[in-house]
Protein 1
Amino acid sequence: MKVLLLAAGRSKRLKPVQDKNFLSFLGKPLIFHQIAQIRSFGLKDIIVVGGKHNLNAIKKLTAEIDPRIKVVEQKDLDEGMAGAVLSASRLIGNDAVFVVSANDVVEDNAFKLILKEAKNKGFDSCILGKRVSSYFPGGYLKVRSNGLISGIVEKPGAGKEPSKMINLVLHFHREGARLVSAIKKVKTARDDRYENALGVLISEGARMKAVPYDGFWRTIKYPWHVLEMMNGFLNELSGIKKGRDVQIARSAVIKGKVYLADGVKIMENAVIAGPAYIGKNTIIATNALVRESEIGENCVIGFGSEIARSHLGNDVWTHSNYIGDSIIGNDCSFGSGTVTGNLRLDEANIMVNIEGSKIDSRTTKLGLITGDGVRSGINTSFMPGVKIGNNSFIGAGIVVAQDVEDDKFVYGRTELMIKDNKAKADKTRREAMRSKVKGH
Amino acid sequence: MKVLLLAAGRSKRLKPVQDKNFLSFLGKPLIFHQIAQIRSFGLKDIIVVGGKHNLNAIKKLTAEIDPRIKVVEQKDLDEGMAGAVLSASRLIGNDAVFVVSANDVVEDNAFKLILKEAKNKGFDSCILGKRVSSYFPGGYLKVRSNGLISGIVEKPGAGKEPSKMINLVLHFHREGARLVSAIKKVKTARDDRYENALGVLISEGARMKAVPYDGFWRTIKYPWHVLEMMNGFLNELSGIKKGRDVQIARSAVIKGKVYLADGVKIMENAVIAGPAYIGKNTIIATNALVRESEIGENCVIGFGSEIARSHLGNDVWTHSNYIGDSIIGNDCSFGSGTVTGNLRLDEANIMVNIEGSKIDSRTTKLGLITGDGVRSGINTSFMPGVKIGNNSFIGAGIVVAQDVEDDKFVYGRTELMIKDNKAKADKTRREAMRSKVKGH
Amino acid sequence: MKVLLLAAGRSKRLKPVQDKNFLSFLGKPLIFHQIAQIRSFGLKDIIVVGGKHNLNAIKKLTAEIDPRIKVVEQKDLDEGMAGAVLSASRLIGNDAVFVVSANDVVEDNAFKLILKEAKNKGFDSCILGKRVSSYFPGGYLKVRSNGLISGIVEKPGAGKEPSKMINLVLHFHREGARLVSAIKKVKTARDDRYENALGVLISEGARMKAVPYDGFWRTIKYPWHVLEMMNGFLNELSGIKKGRDVQIARSAVIKGKVYLADGVKIMENAVIAGPAYIGKNTIIATNALVRESEIGENCVIGFGSEIARSHLGNDVWTHSNYIGDSIIGNDCSFGSGTVTGNLRLDEANIMVNIEGSKIDSRTTKLGLITGDGVRSGINTSFMPGVKIGNNSFIGAGIVVAQDVEDDKFVYGRTELMIKDNKAKADKTRREAMRSKVKGH
């Protein structure tokens, strides 16, 4: 059996967050976790489909994991899943093919369920059907009483669902060549061409089994999903684990489920409140607090910073900042006193601009979203849900309530008024005040 | 003997601070403390005079203390003390009456002195005379050589005081009906009608004893008096007291006179420097400092906050804030980096707008004064002595140097300049800098 | 032998930093260290040349050290070193004279080298030649093969250096009267008159020995040199030293080379990361961090402040500030949340205005430079390399990106927008949020 891992998507709605396949969770790219899960079932014959934007990164990664993993490029990304299958058709040949999305994270049990049904020669295909309790705007499986699928209905609307099962991309097809042939029969180039091909297979008599699944399902479509994904991974931690050469000051406190990678340094009075993952060689400086977050490699979480419920890339420097509910790219730095707002004053849901539309994040707590190479000055205020593009610099002391594109320099213009100072510091008063600081 | 506790005042000059009777000190409303003090002398026959604005709250509270306490409403609050006595005249009947202000806090000894003289049948009334060493703009007792009062002079002016004794409202009258009758003889409705009635009693031959008193006297007229009142109560604490289910992190420090109410949680590296009172179920988070303050119930004093010499209501959330010398209402929250200025640059006394006039607070240290339901954004700066009305929201990153009425939304308008960013983050330099952080 | 210590310079390029002679290092003025070094070689016959601006301070200091030290005033400071020698000519008489700059700090070995050569009667003068490996814009010694100086070339330009030796002002002259006479022969009043006089001596046949020196050399010309000078002194510390009556909270951490002067108080969770010097009676408050810095006397480094790689005068008050790579005068205070930017977003070298010109500080890390008596409000942002003059006050919440002269009051004008607030705090949501703070 060939496993076809689909990783060519461009993550457009994630911008400026980088390719989701390479977002790091527990110190490893998401796609690493996916490949590891596939291989844990003894499946070795893996073909990863990438795009021009990530092909080299995929090749580098898979070479480290197992040189036998094959990587193919999907040239036209607009062709979606169908294009991915066609790109790999020569490698699939006439073998069985197990099509898996790189971005849908499911429990091991989901694989077990599909692989178990796949052994039943009575089925030509097996499709994972995630059972949902409330309406979800995805593709629903239409299922006959014998458990076989008669079609897939995209976004039927609440109350019109043909079943409680959502189509998740864990699809087993006993004859890969038949799938390829069906796709070729669908002439439209729309992004539902693959789903239409499944309809062709059904109409040609393929017995397509709906495999009900009740476990978790996590995916990354919008930036805030990065935090949900992170939480899922962080909760897999157990106890306190330390890599090599980890230094922890005697007055630091590590509590909950915490992973400190090699070379991490935790300084005086710092607190790590798990679940939390701290990447290699990262310094958590004096009086800093990290909670429910993943911090990348080579970061410096500077004096008096708080990082809460956030995902930080590599080489991020903070300094007396509050970064809450935020997704921060690689190589970013924040001037002292810069703060991410993560809650509206009216406590309403936070709306985020996604490709020109305001999308409701369905959460009241969402902070800053940045690409790579972002710098902020001191005492800067980022409003909830703002996005800052790659390599953009944000000046000191301003309130940023709008998204910023890549490669911009944003600054404020403060008009200063200057007049003669008639006051003089009154030493007597200061002495009196000094006597009051006993309670410091 | 009936005790008439006057609690109908509207605390106009306190706005937006709530009814002073229900400001909490050591976890109990001010009026609770007053009733408890009265009852500590075995006085059970208490009549509380309230106004429409606080009648229900008084009834609820007195029902909990002792259902025998009677509560009457004063309809016309412009009638002042005289109106209060008239409102309760039926309940007073022909008994002796001990008129006590709910807002003047005095030592037990003040009650003892009055109650002792009241036993002397030779006197018809006994009036507490607080001896002052410097001029105070209040009513002075004019006293004959035999210790009997011949009149009360309102604000005589410095140097013209008829005695050193200020009239404090701890007034014993052996015949309540006679007081009521005297009030009725004064036809003016001015707020000194009660005092005029005392003049009537004197002119009719009543023997009114001035009872000299040298102990403390605290009252709340202006917002900053709340802090003075608080200090008085906090200093009554002794040692460290804890309620039930209090959790204190091993690295937290509690020092001085501190009361931690039931369910309080003190997190890592937090410091409570007494005297301080922390209300029920309040969380003092990591690295926070509370000193010389009262914090209400269900508050979260978030990471890295400092609360100094301040009075906070219930359900207040702070987060990396400095709140100094401030009076904060219930259900308020402050965005990270928001700071209360509490000292002028020229270290002059702080002036506060009270009903249209600038009043000198006679202190150089005064912070923010808020009503209930106030929210601030991140990195906001409040200037010393500013007042924010109930349910007003203050946007991020602004300097608030003016008072804000109830139910307002205040925000700044920052014009951002955006240009192309020609700089690139220089990795070599960052590496060099990284090598410098040894000293972190 | 007379030692002539030159201390009349006006430190113009240092403004608003005070007279460099009286900048404190390890708790003592720079000139104290210089005099102590001279005296450590048994040289007792010291003449200090001051100017009108510092004459009294020099007299006061030398009287404490040794009343035999003579102080003379140089009237015309434009006459430079030549003028200094002439001012002291009567005191020098016909003795040998050892001319030493008060601002060039060198190793003991530099003195040893000069004093050793001075014993050799074959030389009339000995001049210290600091060997440099790269071009420095100073005066280079032109040296004959026999080691005798044939002239001094000012700023020859890179590649045109006549030797690798820079002229440092440790100059021994066996006959002081001859030096005086040579100076008088130079008729120009330019500031190289002294150097020209050396040329006269050479032309008259004086044997002037170049004494090569490879040790350290530190001088203060521009404000940032104060930090380099400080680092040199701090590195002379060893281990942790405490004066009398030092109080250190149990939870405070002192590490590295640290000197705590008499009466210093270190509060809870404060961290001092050496090398650091803390002056007399200074308080390092709760949660503060001081690293690689010198703090003057009677300072309060308030709650949550970080002072990094900075030099602070006496009576400085900070409060939740970050002060990095900064030079702060005496009697300054900073409102809570005020931050010194010390790194440009583009990480380029920081330029500083010095007497009308932009001078490259040749460092990427430089913060604020202030005179004495400076005050800042809350949440103020100082851009890297900004200079604030004596007794200038800086308002709250502004970004200061320009230098400020002495005696100014600088403030911002924020236009606040006020509208009715339609939102109400939603208690249910707050309850939900509260349940999330477990991880605090």
Protein 2
Amino acid sequence: MIRQIALTVRGWRSNTRAVKILMLGALAGAMLASGAYLRPTVADEGMWLFNDLPLAYLKEKYDFEPSPGWTENLMKASVRFNSGGSASFVSADGLVLTNHHVGADTLHKLSEAGRNLYDDGFLAASLEDELRAPDLELNQLVSIEDVTDKIQAAVQSNMTAAEASRARQAAMSVIENESLEKTGLRSDVITLYGGAKYHLYRYKRYTDVRLVWSPESAIAFFGGDADNFEYPRYCLDVCLFRVYENDRPAKIEHYLKFSTTLKNEELVFVSGNPGSTNRIYTVAALKHLRDTWLPYFMNYLRRQEIMLQQFGLEGEEQTRRAKDDLFSIQNSRKAVHGELSGMQDPEFFKAKRQREAALLQRIKEDPQLRTHAVAWDKIAAAQNRRAALQGMSPSINGRLFNLAETLVRMAEEDAKPSPERLREFRDSNRESLEQDLFSTAPIYADLEQAKLADSLARMAERFGGDYPLVRKVLSGKSPQDRAAALVQGSKLFDVDYRRALAKGGKSAIDESQDPMLILARLVDPRAREIRKEFEEIQEVERQAYAQIAEVLFAEEGTASYPDATFTLRLAFGPVRGYQEGGRSIAAWTTLGGAFESEAAHGAREPWKLPESWHKAKSKLNLETPFNFVCTADIIGGNSGSPVVNRAGELVGVIFDGNIQSLAADYMYSAEQARAVSVASLAVMEALQKVYGAERIVKELTK
Amino acid sequence: MIRQIALTVRGWRSNTRAVKILMLGALAGAMLASGAYLRPTVADEGMWLFNDLPLAYLKEKYDFEPSPGWTENLMKASVRFNSGGSASFVSADGLVLTNHHVGADTLHKLSEAGRNLYDDGFLAASLEDELRAPDLELNQLVSIEDVTDKIQAAVQSNMTAAEASRARQAAMSVIENESLEKTGLRSDVITLYGGAKYHLYRYKRYTDVRLVWSPESAIAFFGGDADNFEYPRYCLDVCLFRVYENDRPAKIEHYLKFSTTLKNEELVFVSGNPGSTNRIYTVAALKHLRDTWLPYFMNYLRRQEIMLQQFGLEGEEQTRRAKDDLFSIQNSRKAVHGELSGMQDPEFFKAKRQREAALLQRIKEDPQLRTHAVAWDKIAAAQNRRAALQGMSPSINGRLFNLAETLVRMAEEDAKPSPERLREFRDSNRESLEQDLFSTAPIYADLEQAKLADSLARMAERFGGDYPLVRKVLSGKSPQDRAAALVQGSKLFDVDYRRALAKGGKSAIDESQDPMLILARLVDPRAREIRKEFEEIQEVERQAYAQIAEVLFAEEGTASYPDATFTLRLAFGPVRGYQEGGRSIAAWTTLGGAFESEAAHGAREPWKLPESWHKAKSKLNLETPFNFVCTADIIGGNSGSPVVNRAGELVGVIFDGNIQSLAADYMYSAEQARAVSVASLAVMEALQKVYGAERIVKELTK
């Protein structure tokens, strides 16, 4: 699955707000798709800004001219899961359709021993039965404003990288706070084209989000890890939430109606939030990924995977508790493996190197651009600094530690004016931060202990058992015993305790004898040092990529799209099958195919359909399209994105990319990479005939 | 399980004859058990040489005086599986009893799609039905001779480490060849006490080995990976082979009779081949293990584990093919994790450091020993060299590559006199080498391809995609595509082709266009360079540890045992339960307990007993002891070791150590570490009542 996750774990950001492992996005596939640095050379490539759509191309190639109303409706009907993922409004009363694997985080948080919503599914019989998610935040993009001039004006040419980084962040923070105060909307300044442009995105936030319907994991993730990133597929990877305001279903002006058709070769559009691409990367930056960062990251993912598998062996309840994390890790491991394999193909670098050499040759002959060549050297030097810092942050996994770290930092940062704080602690982000910090989602002591023990052991391995900070952290105990003492002694499980600490501010935090806070205070100085160094490197890269972007604008014109940043983009392409190993892969599978696939696999896990499907089989129209592929350019973060036709009607929901969209093969057959969707027709058929969800069907078809 | 495996993978030896991942042995537990460097301070500790048993201790503590006949019978009834593991003769007609997991390698090799001896078990109805193993070699130790003087005389004090290493190896080779010519017996010179002593071991070799009986994996490995290294247990982890000579059952003079009793607190003896311990290691060497080697090795194990799991997802037959490797890897991963955890406990190093400091202080005050203090510095320097070389060998996994490498090296080495060759190519080892090289065991192209692709990718990650050797190895292809081409183009699957190449010698090998041979020729020069450097380091360490051993002999007397070297040792201790978390763990479980454990786990995998056991339940004496624990000092390689009582009768077969024998807890409660055995009473009961093996029972009780 192309997992909903968006942020990057490079450098200091190895602990995330969502306490999740993050995906880099289907990096290599994406890069391979890109002929030049930015400009699409392959037809229909691109993740376009809603305020800069390729209108001329759409008109010329597809004779399609989206009206302003078409575009506005699609943009405002699109929803971002702030936890990492995409979705859409599908009713006037706030129904939100996304992937089962995007909702999984919430399904797990709403489950407990003996009540497994993830595996067993859920259907709210009435509005009153809809279950409130403990910490979801949904964002609806309402406007985009170019603020490049204001940001660039804050950075003076005589500043060091550290000064420039601080000045830029402060300028962003000021704009965001002003916007929040003026509009009341969530306001984020987004860095585009590697640092050449800055746009202010304003979002309406929804924080009362309730679960309406979810199918069983056996059909949502039919084929499991084995079939992940494969095609053909038979997955009902969807679920429904509803946004509320003032304890009543929110009134939604812009939403998508279900299409009643799906046509081969029809042009479709994907509106979602691709997480992160690196198509502007230089050869030096890609080499760093291939030879240094990704191998290191893969070791980390494998380590987490084995640790979670081992934890799950302890019992059925442990298996349930570890499932969400395990899925995320396995999904990332499979995706990153595909990316790394693609980059290890010598052909990939050969092509990349030739293009870069040719470009550098041309700009050296151009008196205007000549001075920009130094940007490539700066990027190369930055990679060496990255390599030297790799693994140097004393990062620690686990929800409890993450809470402790947030509390410790928040107390310290809040003593400063908002523009000078670490970025996530700016005033304009406070609501989102607290949404997470005070979540009522369960925290499992045994799982926390397993994660923490592994983190402490990993720290000891990275720095050596005699490193002073390691000795302090372990405090004379083995990693296992120390983890047990930390988890068993902490009161951070309790939301009220966290609220009291946050309210008490720096003095309350400093005085707390909670062992997890003591640990966070212990490692924070070093973690901040490393983060600061990474932010300096990022600033160097930002300035260099801004120069490179200027070169590319000059060379190739501006009809291009920037690298993905987990913000709303439009991709497009026809519904179309492909050739693989001499076989024709049809554009879509059918509901009947799911039963055939189950039989072909002897109905063994993970190819065993739920009982509900067997019961409903005779009622189902087995010819209904189930999953389909199109050529649109997508990546991690696009999970749950609505797929619409020219009429703006919902034909599907993105949930995966095929293996060719990750692997090196792609270079030889760009024709094979496909985005994989659940057909809206299948969603409707299942809601009616498998799940008997009359209330929902009525609302969707109203 | 304490896995049968014996050799070390440190340094160059990452490809082994048996194409298996190797275990370091339950290192940390072992080290923790050792109060001093060599001398046991904990009662009943020790893996004693058969020619230097602690007779005074046995007499004093247990009032037991083994007669020469008792010792000779036990030594000659003990059997070594050259593939890594221990066993015993249990009938006059050559029956050999070992662990199911020691025989697993052969069970898999005798299986094929639709005929899974590992999972489904096997019973030969008659002699004619016994199945010949494709490549087993069993060794029976017949004599031990001290050759220290001869070896030491070959090394001059003015030699460099490289020269000394060569001279020592040549001297060993000469002694071995002379012995082989004189006696016709397999002759191995063994390095003891880190290099202070050298003994010549002579073995009778059995190479016609046939499978007689094996239970289902569901009972042999009841509880699976989850229960591995845990206790209480319910595993019938045994199987029976028979050695043949001249196509008839071999006549065996020394064998063990099954005991008809098992008594709590009775003294028992374990006669087997512990693989490798490092109790003599200095603090610097242990730090290298903790901070550098073991973390690296764990990453490698996790990588292999995930790769094999992913391969198994492709189908049931793939699962079967990968099972033996996957078990080995999981077993090693769990054991090494326990070792590393033990070493990460600061208390472990604190104690070790204090003892070393005190020892160094004492010898500095001793005019005789003062000069020996430099040995510790030499070891420390050697660790830095080890760290610098770590991961530098272009090692490649997979049976086909292993065969190619052996052929390439054999052709090159055979041009030299035997004493000057790489050690495994000496004349006296040729029969064993060919036993493996010309094995008829199946080689699965798909599994080979998966392993090779992963190896090539790992090489690219370690050296960087632009490293010249990597570029040559990949030859313009991605790791996956290159692996596919190599495997699909190779004829090394064919035993006759391998025989022809071996017979053709260097010219045949050099001219072969088999892509796997081309690959082996390509990487061999660099692999040899790295191996040479490692052998130099080992020589430095050998000389230093010999000095350290002298100090310890002087300090602590000579009533000690050397570190394990996969040669026959005797351990002992009482059958005894232990306390854990306030609970009393009884010395043995019963057959009835297996049914209770199955029920307690809801009969879900891997706690599901085979159908044969349910059918036989009413006939079984459910009070029969099943698995039991004793305090004997064992480690990886001891798997399958016979456990005998004072009368020399077989009471059990070692198959595991509990988690406390690996983990740091041990330091605080030496009382908890236990060796785990299958009771011979359970074997007999199952043979009679579950498997109806009357022919075998009759032979065993004759």
